[in-house]
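Supplementary Methods, section 5.1.

A reviewer requested that the exact input to the structure prediction be made available. We therefore reproduce it here, unchanged from the version used in the analyses.
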Amino acid sequence: MSQLQIRVYYEDTDSGGVVYYANYLKFIERGRSEFLRSLGFEQDELTKKQNIIFAVKSLSADYQSPARFNDLLNVQTQVEKIGKASLVFSQKITSLEQNKVLFTAQVIVACLGADNFKPCAIPSIILDQVIMEKNNG
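The structure derived from this sequence is encoded token-by-token as follows.
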């Protein structure tokens, strides 16, 4: 499991000081990027060297409690399921101050050819690391 701490800035909130709903999607996107980085993969390098990109195919989200300006959040990311050309991530955002779950999501990410945007197999070099992380996590 990968973890990322994020501070809520004024720009993340609406006029009521609550995190704008779409920003949770940005936070979990960062979590997935950091997950790949923790395995030794940079997304721009994957595009250049492996000719692949990862794109969100679908997601389901549950907003449980609001985050507010200046809160310190923890984004947890883990792989739930591994397919030939897709990964299913389980993600959770918690408030570190309140020790409370604020947001959960299940995200299906597809591996696509960078040149044609068609589904393709996840390269074994990545798959091996994801499987090891899933088994150790």
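The domain at 2-136 is CATH 3.10.129.10 (Thiol Ester Dehydrase; Chain A). These observations are discussed further in the main text.
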